[in-house]
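Review form for a predicted model. The reviewer records the input and the model, then writes brief findings.
Reviewer: anonymous (R2)
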Amino acid sequence: MVLLNRKGNLSEMKNEYIKTDLGNYKITVHPGTNLVVFLNGAGSFDTADAFAPVIEKLSPNVGLLAIDYLNTGLSSIQKKEYSLTEDIQNMVEMITERNPKKVIIVAHSLGGIFARLIAAKLTNVTGFVGIEPTTLEILAGIPDIPEYQEKKEQFNAMTQEQAIENMKKQSEKSFTKKQHADLWQHFYEDSKRDSDKQYQQQSEVFMTDLPKMNDSKFSTNMEVRIFTEKYRENEYKRSEYYTKQTEIISVGDNHYLHWDYPTEIAQKIQNLV
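Model under review:
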C-alpha cells in the first residue's frame, strides 16, 4: 500500500483529556474504522510527539490513538497509587470507546508490556509493531552476553545531559522543525513538574504486579513486526512476542529506531491495517 504524507493532517489530530480517579490521561486522536494505538516507552516524551515522523506517513483514513501514561508526557500526575490492572483497564476503555473494527498496537520499549496486557483484554487486536519492546528476559536482568554488556556500559558512561544532547541530534534528522520543537518543549514541560518521583514509585508498584500477569502473550496467529538492533534478534525469537506470524527487522544501532526509520515502520503498520 502506498504511504501518504500526513504533514498537513497532523494538525487534524485532536488532544483530549480523559478524567479518571487515578488521574487525567492525555490522548491524541484521529477517527477511523481501523485504529492504530501508539504506546510510548518510559520517559517524559508525549506519545504523539515521539511518533510524529511515523504518523505523518500513514493514510489519513487510518484511525489513530496515542496515549500518554500518567506521570508522563502531557498526562497529569497520578492522584493516588494504583495497580497495573487499573491502568490497563483505563487504556482498554479508551480503545473500546472508539468502537474500532480492528486494532493495531504500535509500541516502543516499555510500551510493549502494556501492548501485551491490553491485547489480552480485546478480541480485535490483529497486529503489533514493536520498536525494541521490553521483554521479560530484560526485566529479569541484562543478559551476561558481550553485546548486551557493551551497550550497558555505553549507556552508563553518559551523563543525562549527554544522553539528551545525543537524542536531540538524532531527532533533528527525521522530525520537521515544528515536530522537533514540540517534542522537546513538551519534554521539558514534563521535567519541570518533577514527575520522575511519581513515575519511579508507580514503576515499583508495576514491577510487583507484573509477575502475576507475565503469562499474557499474543495469540499464536497475531501478525507481529519487531524492529530491533541486530544483537537483540535472538532475544525476540525466544520472547513472549514471538508468534507464527512474526517478522523481525534488524536495523540501526540505537533504541529509538522509530526516529531513524519512520518510513519503514509506517509501511509495516499500513500493511497490517
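Findings: Residues 1-9 have pLDDT under 50 and may be disordered.
Further findings: DSSP finds twelve helices and eight strands in the chain.
Recommendation: see findings above.
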